Amino acid sequence: MYQVNEIILYGSEGICKIDNMMTRHVNGQPIEYYVLKPIKSESSTIYVPTLNEELTKKMKRVLSYQEIIDLIHFIPDSELLWIDNDNLRKERYKGILRDGNRQEIMQLIRTLYLHQLKLKEEGKKFHASDDKFYKDAERILYEEFAYVLNISEEEVVPFICQEIDVKEIA
Hints:
Oligomer: single chain
Domain CarD-like/TRCF RNAP-interacting: 1-113
Order of helices and strands: EEEEHEHHHHH
Organism: Longibaculum muris
Structural class: alpha+beta
InterPro entries: CarD-like/TRCF_RID (IPR003711), CarD-like/TRCF_RID_sf (IPR036101), CarD-like_C (IPR042215), CarD-like_regulator (IPR052531), CarD_C (IPR048792)
CATH topology of the largest domain: Methane Monooxygenase Hydroxylase, Chain G, domain 1
Pfam families: CarD_C, CarD_TRCF_RID
Protein name: CarD family transcriptional regulator
CATH superfamily of the largest domain: CarD-like, C-terminal domain
Low-confidence stretches: none
Strand order of the largest sheet: 4-3-2-1-5
């Protein structure tokens, strides 16, 4: 169970603060909710029923500094997640973003980045759905990295590159 004032990652909404816990009555039954405030949009409010397993699974503890460093060092040896079949690839990538496993999200970013480079070399265009997955994965992961590392999102890629001593990764 999460606590009020705790900072979490909530699905594709990104970093949120648990602003409150509240009970609402629905059909005469009391239902307890987490009240989440996205840090990028404090005017937004997300209500997550505490007993709704599907929605509470989207709530993840924010990575620690050391977990981020470990994840960054995982990048060069990570397996690529490319799937040639468009439909299977879309389903797999949707699942990765939905599940929120940061290691898989990092692998997804690396896979799509390298695929995009390959296509550029061949004079081909990046598929629109792959571009969307790439941008969504970056947004989710880089927002969390920026928050934990106390840097801007624009500084995340240079930080990663410096940490693994490469010129460019994504």
